[in-house]
């Protein structure tokens, strides 16, 4: 069990130089953009434009702040992403461009190398308490959009601030989240391929 605090995230430029990313976690530790197995980050998008291309990578995008954006992926029609929408998965090696709906947005970006790891991202919105299902195997990361307390059985309680993350590789661990009002937590499940 490990807590990552938002103020400690590593900041780095986008691959295409168009903005800045706050890297929440990456595996293996210290991996760069060309050799990660999985990577989780937040980015501020201030203008319309193309996404960086990542060969062999699958990506899931969620809107954390702002009105949202419209994505055009390859020859497909535009997809509208908003803060209330469930996370959206798409291949990161297909030409993708974004148009902001209103103004600046902040997004959550989860990427995994297709031949080495799978991932799933779920947005949990709740008032009061929320219990998470057990995970048979893999790594679970919780990104808290608002302050919550996470109870992890014998491992204790963790006070999480806005955009803090908790990482656990204990697949069968039962977790209960509790917030003081309406709360949003993103649950990321990373499953290495055999």
Could you please describe the fold and organization of this structure?
It is built from no helices and 19 strands. It is mostly beta strands and 194 residues long. It has two domains: 114 residues, Jelly Rolls, CATH 2.60.120; 75 residues, Jelly Rolls (Sandwich), CATH 2.60.120.10. A six-stranded antiparallel beta sheet has the order 2-3-4-11-6-9, with no helix packed on it. It is globular, with a radius of gyration of 16 Å.
State the CATH architecture of the largest domain. Answer: Sandwich
The strand order across the widest sheet is: 2-3-4-11-6-9
CATH class category name of the largest domain? Mainly Beta
Uncertain stretches? none
- Class per helix and strand makeup: mainly beta
Order of helices and strands: EEEEEEEEEEEEEEEEEEE
Shape: globular
Largest sheet at a glance? 6 strands, antiparallel
What is CATH's topology name of the largest domain? Jelly Rolls
Percentage of helical residues? under 10%
The domain count comes to 2
The tally of helices reads: 0
Mean pLDDT: 90
Q: Note the beta-strand portion.
A: over 45%
Q: CATH-wise, what's the superfamily of the largest domain?
A: Jelly Rolls
Count of beta strands: 19
Distance separating the two termini: 23 Å
Rg result: 16 Å
InterPro entries: RmlC-like_jellyroll, RmlC_Cupin_sf, Uncharacterised_HutD/Ves
Protein name: HutD-family protein
């Amino acid at each position: 069990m490990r807590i990552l605090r938002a103020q400690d995230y590593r900041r780095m430029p986008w691959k295409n130089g168009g903005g800045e990313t706050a890297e929440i976690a990456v595996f293996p530790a210290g991996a760069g953009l060309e050799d990660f197995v999985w990577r989780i980050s937040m980015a501020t998008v201030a203008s319309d434009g193309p996404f960086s291309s990542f060969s062999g990578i699958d990506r899931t995008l969620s809107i954390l702040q702002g009105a949202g954006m419209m994505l055009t992926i390859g020859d497909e029609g535009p997809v509208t992403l908003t803060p209330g929408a469930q996370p959206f998965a798409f291949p990161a090696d297909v030409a993708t461009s974004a148009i902001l709906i209103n103004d600046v947005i902040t997004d959550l970006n989860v990427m995994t190398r297709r031949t080495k790891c799978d991932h799933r991202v779920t947005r949990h919105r709740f008032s009061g308490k929320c219990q998470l299902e057990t995970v048979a195997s893999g790594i679970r990361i919780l990104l808290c959009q608002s302050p919550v307390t996470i109870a992890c059985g014998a491992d204790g309680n963790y006070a999480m601030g806005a955009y803090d993350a908790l990482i656990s590789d204990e697949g069968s661990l039962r977790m209960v989240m509790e917030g003081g009002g309406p709360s949003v937590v993103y649950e990321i499940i990373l499953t290495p391929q055999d």
